[in-house]
Structure formats: structure tokens, C-alpha cells
Amino acid sequence: MNRNLFFWLLSGFLLGGCGDPDSSSKRVQWPTMGTIASVRASSSLSDATSAKRSCEAIFQNQEAIFSAWEESSELSRLNLTAGTGAATECSRDLSHVLVQALALCQESEGAFNPLIGSALRIWGFNGASPVHQQPGGEEIAEALRLADWRQLRTTRASPHSISLQIPVRGMKLDLGAIAKGYAVDLAYAALKSAGCSNLLINLGGNLRAIGEGNQGEGGWRTGIRDPFGKRQVFARFLLRDGEAVATSGNYERFVTIQGRRYAHIIDGRTGIPVRGMAGTTVVAPTAELADGLSTTLFILGAEKGTAFLMRHHPECRAIWIPDTGKETDYAIAGNWQPNHLEILEKP
Ligand code: AMP
Ligand code: MG
């Protein structure tokens, strides 16, 4: 094993969502982008409320770009051009996220795959009709053909935009694994440039910290939710000023086919939903990277994911909770400082 690896396989509880477990009267929350957003302020409820107003408008704009459900979204309209031969200039936001998604795709050799849209549909996700039996080999092979990211053609259209040609009819981009993180980064930048301090932004488990929760702490104490509810919080850690954290889990979005549960995260190389992982949490310098990486590392698992992290993103840190049913299996990797991560004991 790589010597630089800060990796332990320990005994512990199954972990799940990354949350904001400390309920506070200085927090406002609201539904958006198919999930719940919240802002916490260390100062006052009115600071949280005014920060919410900035975030609300940003998240709504991003939903109009990235929604895989809304037929009018920029992404849905782009998907309609698949196989027509047309090259379409994407907006600045879509261009940026697409470039990041394709970089993660390349680094992970297609495990993270922004062309996963067709595979999601054969398993009954993204508004497809309910599926009553597991898709057959031919159906999966066809979905994989439509997930061949190497065929996407991008060219630079302007300093901030790219032009994209989706060559095969039926290919469907899905950026649900990274777009929320990007939206959080936009909110973070807007609040910072408005001079706001000491806020914690959370969009469906994608968090980014501005300043600190309590004076002198250097960040916000936050937690990782226990997905099985055996306890409220699996672990606590300090999210330092400017840092972001994201969690991917198998317990919030899933389908049940013939009594078996399948999570909404599909291995982009096989077209099959990932099994065996309950949750993966990643701390990164930006929310977009944390979001993209939490999905990637969920797919790769702890061992391959640790090697991946050390090779491509050594500045980040991660926790995996495998769905082994054995409450003591979890793994961590990256630059955790011992006093910054506290795994809580079973009550
Ligand atoms: P997250 O909760 O950030 O892990 O994102 C999960 C979402 O990512 C799913 O609901 C899908 O929209 C999308 N997704 C699923 N599998 C993949 C994959 N292999 N690569 C990229 N995105 C994926
Ligand atoms: Mg993600």
C-alpha cells in the first residue's frame, strides 16, 4: 500500500448523508433543485434570511440550466440535439460544469460518467416508468453504448464557453452528480463578494463554509449523518473556512426491483447500480469538486478510491462507509488532521 496513504480500515457504524445536524434558530431552509437548501449564520436569524435571498435566486437559475426533469432546462434541450449533427454553444455555467465533469470522467476512466442519463433511465430513474425486473444484458449493453463519453466532441466557442456535439441519438447527459456543488460555489462567491461572514451554506448535503460557527474555531463544526438512524450523527469534523464537503449515499434515492434495492449511483463502466456502499463523504477546496468526488469515490470504493484520491486530488479527504451490515467497517483517506475528525461512539 502507498506509504503516503492516510488510510485505515476501522470498525464502526454504517455512515450516510452529510448533514447539518446541529439544528439552530439561526438557520433558514427551503426546497429547491429537487432537495432542501439551508443557510446558517453564526450571528443572527436576519443574516441567515438575507443570505437565503441571494442563494435562492442562484439555485433557481442553476435549476433552469441543469434539471434533468424539466424539459425546458438548458441540459434537456441540449440532449435533444443528440444525433442531429448539431454543435451547440453551452452557457458559461453549463460549459464550466461539463468541463469539470469530463475531467473527472477521464481521471476515473469512465466510472464517473456524465453520459449516464440513458443507463439511469433503464433502471427507472429520472422520470422513467417504474421498472419491474432487472434490465437484461442487451439493454445494459445499449445503455453503455449511449454512455460512450469518448465520442463527445467539445470545442472552445469563447473564453468562457464550449460548443458540444452529442454524436449519437439517445445519448443523455446527466450532471446531477456535480451541479449542486457548483451551485453552492456560486452562492459562496456571491455571499463573499457581498461582504458576508460566518455562514454555512447547505444544498442537499453539499456544504461550504464561510468564516466560523463559533469565534476562534477557524471553521464550522459539522457532522455526517448516520444513514440508518442508529444514531443521529456518525462523525463530527471541522469544516475550515472556505472548505466544502459533500456526501453521496444509497439511502435517499433508490428503486426497488423484485424486492431488491438499487441506488441511484450507477457505475459508468458497467451500467449497473453500485452495491455495497452506504455512503461516501469528501472534503475539498470547492463544493463542485467535493460533489463530483463523492460520487466518484462512492463508485470506486475505499481501496481504489484511496489510490485515486492520492493520485489526482491529494488536497482532499474522504470517508467511506461500506454497506456490509457490519457496523465497524469504515475507511478514511486524505489529509484529515486527527483532532479534526471525531468518530462518535454508538450510544
Ligand atoms: P450524488 O448524490 O452527488 O452522488 O449524485 C448522484 C446523481 O449522479 C444521480 O442521481 C445521477 O443523477 C448521477 N449519477 C449516477 N451515476 C453516475 C455516474 N456514474 N457518473 C456521473 N453521474 C452519475
Ligand atoms: Mg456528487
What features would you describe in this structure?
With 347 residues, the chain is of the alpha+beta class. The chain has a single domain, classed as ApbE-like domains (T-fold, Roll). Helices cover 29% and strands 28% of the residues. It has seven helices and 20 strands. The protein has a nine-stranded antiparallel β-sheet with strand order 1-19-18-17-12-9-8-4-3, with helices on one face. Helix 3 (92-107) runs parallel beside helix 7 (287-312). The radius of gyration is 20 Å and the shape is globular. Residues 177-178, 246, 248, 291-292, 294-295 line the site of magnesium ion.
SSE topology:
Layout: E1 8-10, E2 18-19, E3 27-32, E4 35-41, H1 45-66, H2 74-79, E5 87-89, H3 92-107, H4 117-122, H5 137-145, E6 153-158, E7 161-165, H6 179-193, E8 199-203, E9 206-210, E10 219-225, E11 233-240, E12 244-249, E13 254-257, E14 260-263, E15 266-267, E16 272-273, E17 277-284, H7 287-312, E18 317-322, E19 330-334, E20 341-343
Antiparallel strand pairs: 1-19, 2-10, 3-4, 4-8, 5-7, 6-7, 8-9, 9-12, 10-11, 11-20, 12-17, 13-14, 15-16, 17-18, 18-19
Helix pairs in contact: 1-6, 3-7, 6-7
Bound molecules: adenosine monophosphate and magnesium ion (MG).
